[in-house]
Amino acid sequence: MKFHDESQNLRVRLRIIQVIVLVLLAVLGVRLYFLQVVHGAYYAERAENQRVRLLPIPAQRGTIFDRNGRILVDSRPIYNVILSREEMQGKDFGSLVAPLSYALALDPELLRDRFNELKSQPAFESIIIKQNATMADIQWVEARQAFDHPELRIEQQPQRRYPENGVLAHVLGYVAEVNPKQLEREEYKAKGLKPGDIIGQEGLEATYDNYLRGRDGYRKVIVDSRGRIQDEIEKVLPQPGQDIVTTIDVDLQEMAEEQLRNSPSGRGVIISVDPRNGEILAMASAPTFDPNLFSQRISTKAGRAEYAALIKDPKRPLYNRAIRGRYPPGSTWKIPMAVAGLEQGQIRTENSGLVCGGGITVGNKFTRCMGHHGTPPLTTAIKHSCDGYFYRLGLKMKLEGIMRMVDEFDLNKRTGVDLPHELISWTPSREFKKKFQPKAAEWGDIDTVFASFGQVYENMTPLSMLRTIAGISVGGKLFVPHLLKEVRATPAMGEPGRFDYRPAREARTFTPLDASRPNPKVVPISPENHRMVVEGMWQVVNAGGTGGAMQMAGFDVAGKTGTAQVVSLGKDVGENKDHSWFVAYAPAYNPEIASIALVENVGFGGKFAAPATKAVYEVYYRKTRPDAAPPEVAENKAAKSQVGLQ
What we know:
The chain is α+β, with helices and mostly antiparallel strands. The chain contains 23 helices and 20 strands.
């Protein structure tokens, strides 16, 4: 038997094993070096994050009150399903669509869209999957947190609650989750916002979001490998948002909205202000919408369909007509024209010699007046809304005088109201005509005639027109109209020895958003000129003028009707009927309230807008004069006239 020496092969094998072991040790050493030295801080942070969790405590958003302390907007606690992105552990968002949509009754397309939005966003800690979770939702999440879905948890959060039936919707606005486009803007980055945060998107909720939103708190807790809380390390209480008190009187607001809702067209605006300081008492725009859609239902399929219907509605319910609607003002334009004519010296006395003539002929164009008023004094021209008188006044003032009037009354500027997206009115100018009539761009006398009575070259927002008339009512003081009365201070939060302190937030009252804007702006009006204009407006209501439907016993109302064409004569029927305007203030010689009403496409101003305004004034009269007799139409107009002239 031949002997074979295997020792040599054994030694070779041992060396190979040794080399392999050395290589493996080297690989492990390099890997360990990268884990502990190169990426040590990263993995230490991850390990800490797996052990320590920051659970946010959402701040309660501030409550919004009316001027009398009635709650307009508050928040109620709800439970939300939250997804922690750090707990995804390599899971694909797409894999969650089917189980979550089925178990939580979510629309899969909406959930998929939600996840797609997040792909372009930084990996923040958590996002809202479902608001206002039901008890069944909560039980399903809690039963699967430990194993199947550790990325899910339940959190209690406040949810905004708005008045029913869309009351004050355009004023209050609404809150909604900050969207990806907003997060890209510097102003939102500066606020430290992240996906899932709820912010004011429209109305007062948007304007005063920094006050209302507050600051979130958090709980720092230790969790085990299954995400179960073992201990609490620290707790920082949230800083609740500040409450705000508005200038709105709910009783006036509800009456204004009722009047618009019951009008023939169901479309229009009613605004009431205190002319002595610019406080807005009511601002109604119709049709309206339910802002609870955005805070409670927009994340559901039905909510999205409801929103789509609002967007497509030709009546534009999301559109605040008070600050975004531009309308020809009709004969309400004659009031600033009368003041400007007097102050510019084009009318030197009440009996100025301007004739009516049943209209005026300029070139081959005849522009009619609705009556034949002879040679009326200014008060009578206002009382009967004599177009012929104001045609001739406009020609005396010329375009330059009209533009000077526009500039003095800020009719070519925003009013400065504390609401977002206010539009600027369109007013007469050569540039205006060039823009809208490029084929006949040269300004002529007939254009001055048109510019003098509130048609063709004027398209005013109702609020800008009201600011002008309210300013005239108090002798030329044009206050910035506003809705904020007070931001209430909030106390510092904290518990000695355990929780941190947050500084108290101070109270404040309204200041113009544009700090350089004078408030009020003073337009010089002599006492005698002021008296003539006020007397003419008083006669409109109380001495057989065009606004007799507004007459109230015991409450001297001064006003002016307006009937604004939207199409040429002969075509003004049906949906193309004239707009109905009425602007008024009371008491005439010591105003406390000024209002404007516009009802779209219904006809004569004295027939529709004036009664709507009267209904609001009756509420105001009863609230401010509870011991007085109910306001009724005076039967003795002569006696009424005598009282008004005192």
